[in-house]
């Protein structure tokens, strides 16, 4: 009697197609003759010798053609950058330094975070935009022609925004526009430069999709209401920036930060201006609260990587504001923003709730709009945790005269030395030990072929 193994056909698995939900990008939406002239002129003007072209994943299809045209026109060494170290929207100066690049040309969506090492030229998408339809939708939604409007937009519509705003300005005389802070312009908030310092009495309009860029700007600016215009669907609708459920979740994570006995500072950028200063500030706050801190650099962050650090109570991401990780539910431990750890640990924010939410850590540095430091501000030494209901002791932050914080009194005649590394040294399992030089080299052998459900050396059926 024979019986067939109960498993799916391997042919189905190997030939399965994956549905791509991203909008397909066409070549003319990122590249044309005018962009070629602009790039080659920029290279020749500055006499760059080695230039890196950074493409996001959806644009790598066009990288060979674009690189060949730039190399032919500029007669310089051109290299392609793909699979970026962190986010595709961030300029990857680290990868460019491997070939000693003089400059980078960044293609596609960009967060416009300020970089410090290399000059950068941005080539944005050029998505189709109908100025007439946009104006018609705004006129139907906003009946008051004297209303104060503030316009923001996705970088993919940067090429068309001047004409669109000029048409809007003729109908709404009090309309203003946020401008992208590029070519050395200092931003007022995120990547935007604005003429108005206060927008509380404005109606803000965002041109683009309901994505992370819209979320960042809508959470960071206080206004009367937000209107979202999608050029693809040609729809203008009023939208809420974040529901109360999302905000309650973030406040819960702030309380988790207060309870944490150890934190992991996840470095999500090595190029954004001020990232190292922010890391040192978080480490100083952790030291004042007598909380162990570990600095972690893992490239592109995902739940599997951070799950390797189960002894850490909370992770803080110092990275690009375009990061969508804060909304993920897959992480085993809370992953919070710099703004949330600042709210939890900085005594200058004690008993204060800001009007807006900040995803850009540079706003919390000196000269930032949300920068707060008060040497006299202190937390109560004993506080009640809103998560566990227990009393937690908060260190005063006062340093001993000799500056040593490594010693801890155990009993009358005992003294123990405590260090952050002791937690990992006490583990029974410490990872895979390579034991270099202790074992003889292994011989190269033929490995298995096929998929895990059925390798080629396995029989197709089993006889009983």
What does this structure look like?
It is a single chain. This protein is an alpha/beta fold and 464 residues long. Helix content is 24%, strand content 19%. It has 12 helices and 23 strands. It has helices at residues 10-14, 33-46, 63-74, 93-97, 131-141, 161-171, 212-220, 244-259, 275-288, 303-306, 338-345, 422-425, and strands at residues 2-3, 50-54, 77-81, 103-107, 120-123, 149-153, 176-177, 179-180, 192-193, 203-207, 225-230, 235-239, 262-267, 292-296, 314-318, 335-337, 382-384, 391-393, 407-411, 414-417, 450-451, 454-455, 462-463. The strands form 8 sheets. The protein has a 5-stranded mixed β-sheet with strand order 7-6-10-11-12, with helices on one face. Helix 2 (33-46) packs across helix 3 (63-74), helix 5 packs parallel to helix 6 and helix 9 (275-288) packs parallel to helix 11 (338-345). The model is unreliable at 1-7 and 17-21 (pLDDT under 50).
């Amino acid at each position: 009697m024979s019986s067939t193994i109960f498993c799916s056909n391997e042919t189905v698995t190997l030939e399965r197609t994956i549905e791509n939900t991203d909008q397909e990008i066409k070549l003319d939406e990122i590249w044309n003759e005018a962009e070629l002239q602009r790039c080659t002129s920029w290279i020749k003007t500055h006499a760059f010798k080695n230039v890196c072209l950074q493409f996001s994943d959806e644009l790598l299809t066009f990288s060979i053609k674009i690189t060949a045209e730039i190399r032919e026109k500029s007669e310089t060494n051109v290299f392609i950058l793909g699979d970026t170290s962190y986010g595709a929207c961030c300029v990857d100066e680290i990868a460019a330094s491997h070939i000693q690049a003089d400059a980078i040309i960044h293609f596609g969506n960009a967060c416009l975070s300020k970089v410090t090492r290399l000059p950068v030229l941005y080539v944005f998408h050029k998505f189709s935009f109908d100025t007439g339809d946009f104006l018609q939708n705004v006129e139907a939604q906003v009946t008051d022609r004297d209303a104060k409007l503030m316009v923001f937009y996705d970088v993919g519509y940067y090429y068309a925004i001047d004409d669109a705003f000029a048409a809007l300005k003729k109908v709404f005389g009090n309309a203003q526009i946020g401008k992208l802070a590029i070519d050395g312009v200092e931003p007022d908030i995120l990547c935007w430069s604005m003429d108005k310092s206060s927008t509380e009495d404005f109606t803000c309009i965002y041109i683009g999709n309901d994505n992370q860029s819209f979320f960042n700007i809508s959470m960071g600016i206080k206004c009367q209401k937000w209107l979202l215009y999608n050029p693809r669907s040609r729809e203008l609708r009023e939208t809420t920036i974040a529901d109360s459920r999302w905000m309650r979740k973030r406040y819960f994570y702030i309380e988790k930060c207060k309870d944490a006995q150890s934190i992991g500072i996840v470095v999500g950028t090595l190029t954004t201006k001020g990232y190292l200063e922010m890391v040192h500030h978080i480490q100083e706050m952790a030291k004042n609260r007598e909380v162990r801190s570990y600095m972690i650099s893992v490239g592109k962050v995902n739940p599997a990587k951070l799950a390797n650090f189960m002894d850490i109570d909370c992770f803080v991401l110092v990275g690009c504001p375009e990061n969508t990780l804060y909304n993920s539910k897959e992480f085993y431990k809370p992953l919070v923003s710099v703004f949330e750890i600042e709210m939890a640990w900085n005594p200058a924010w004690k008993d204060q709730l800001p009007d807006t939410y900040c995803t850009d850590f540079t706003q919390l540095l000196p000269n930032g709009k949300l920068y707060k430091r008060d040497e006299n501000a202190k937390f109560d030494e004993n506080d009640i945790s809103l998560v566990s209901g227990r009393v937690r002791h908060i260190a005063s932050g006062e340093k001993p005269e000799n500056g040593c914080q490594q010693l801890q009194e155990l009993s009358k005649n005992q003294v123990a030395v405590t260090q952050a590394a002791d937690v990992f040294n006490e583990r029974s399992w410490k990872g895979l030990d390579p034991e270099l030089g202790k074992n003889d080299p292994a011989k190269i052998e033929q490995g298995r072929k096929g998929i895990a459900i059925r390798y080629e050396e396995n029989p197709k059926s089993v006889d009983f």
